[in-house]
Design brief:
This protein has ten helices and 17 strands. It is of the alpha+beta class. The strands form three sheets. It has a seven-stranded antiparallel sheet with strand order 1-10-9-4-3-2-5. It has a seven-stranded antiparallel sheet with strand order 11-17-16-15-14-13-12. Strands 6-7-8 form a three-stranded antiparallel sheet, with no helix packed on it.
């Protein structure tokens, strides 16, 4: 077969990528953090299904709108974040918390109607919050809690109190799916991360526990058969304490890690690492990550607490440096893959340490609506 198979077309073809993004825009997508909208009229810009949107805090709560004026289609927000009323910079049309144009200069004189009679409005984005995370979509469907399933309770507990220790924002010249799949691949660690994850060789089969829940998945290092059930129950009871390396993937674009970075004077430094994949084009993705020292893993010992207060800023810097190294190693692989994706002629040959890649592609095929062809 000379043609690129359907499952791989959006990796190299702009038209297929646009169609994919349009379909994925109708499912809950991670957009950002509620902590960034702490004050009235705080806003930030995000991307949903290839369309620029903005989310803002009003007296009525959080609201999301497509970032395009209903008048002449100028972007309402031209920066990445800010604070202020919803006013278009092209002709000063002003919108309220419902997205209705309520302030139109010379409206009666120019249009012969009042702003209310003109009935102009912004396109609304459906929003929902889990813990400290904001999700959005265009159109209806299951609630966010239904979409996340048991993962909702986990995210609610882990992200409710986010005191960020650092962030990493990286442009990557590769398709978002390549980046998703390398995060779900445990077979590459020796070749790509020889001095970190792969330092001790390949993971033994008994050390790998994969769990699939709805459209999402979890990897637990050296976990028990009921590890996921235990994690969910502990989060529901607000008793979860990190013990194992955890790697969640919430389709389509949210990756959440729980990992121990260091042990200093018997104090375990456990981090929550949240990565957002923002597709920009068929061959470009923005990777945005933030991390926090998990407060639920704070030491009880007074000496350890005092030591942590002094040492934590240094540990945060070391952690960030190592995280950038790991990202760069993975991103380099993805960028090299991007150069040849147009040459794909068949399905992938996946190993049992790439099980979650297959699950990811199963879900992708379901929502982008084409016949799965990975065998």
């Amino acid at each position: 077969m000379s043609e690129v198979p359907e499952w791989a077309r959006s990796l190299s073809q702009s038209e297929s990528f646009a169609q994919e993004q349009k379909k994925l825009s109708h499912i809950w997508t991670f957009l950002g953090f509620e902590k960034d909208l702490s004050n009235l009229n705080d806003w930030f810009v995000a991307s949903l299904g290839g369309r620029s949107i903005f989310i803002q805090r009003f007296d009525e709560g959080l609201r999301g709108f497509e970032n395009i004026c209903s008048h002449r289609f100028y972007p309402i927000r031209t920066e990445q974040k800010g604070n202020g009323p919803v006013v278009c910079g092209f002709h000063q049309w002003r919108y309220d918390a419902c997205g209705h144009a309520v302030g139109i200069p010379k409206c009666k004189q120019i249009y012969g109607k009042t702003a209310n009679e003109l009935d102009a409005a912004l396109n609304i984005v459906d929003l929902s919050v889990c813990g400290g995370l904001i999700f959005g979509r265009f159109g209806g469907g299951p609630t966010l809690q239904e979409w996340l399933g048991p993962g909702y309770d986990v995210l609610s507990y882990l992200t409710l109190d986010l005191d960020f220790a650092g962030e990493i924002d990286l442009p990557v010249k590769a398709n978002w799916r390549l980046m998703a799949e390398i995060a779900l691949d445990d077979y590459h660690i020796v070749a790509v991360h020889p001095n970190t994850f792969g330092k001790k060789g390949f993971l033994p089969p008994e050390g790998i526990k994969y769990f699939r829940f709805g459209s999402h998945s979890l990897f637990v290092l050296n976990g028990a058969e009921k590890a996921f059930e235990t994690i969910v129950n502990e989060c529901r009871e607000q008793k979860f304490i990190p013990r194992k390396y955890l790697a969640f993937y919430f389709f389509p674009n949210l990756i959440v890690f729980v990992l121990e970075a260091m042990n200093i004077l018997g104090d375990e430094y456990w981090y929550l690492y949240i990565q957002q994949l923002e597709p920009l084009s068929h061959d470009e993705t923005r990777s945005k990550s933030r991390f926090v020292l998990l407060p639920i893993a704070r030491p009880a010992n007074v000496v350890q607490r005092l030591a942590r207060k002094a040492i934590a800023p240094i540990v945060n810097k070391i952690f960030r440096r190592h995280a950038i190294q790991l990202h760069n190693e993975d991103n380099g692989v993805c960028e090299n893959l991007q150069k040849v994706v147009h040459q794909i002629k068949r399905g992938m040959m996946l190993s049992n340490q790439e099980q979650r890649v297959e699950w990811f592609e199963d879900v992708y095929a379901q929502y982008v609506q084409f016949k799965k062809d990975l065998e």
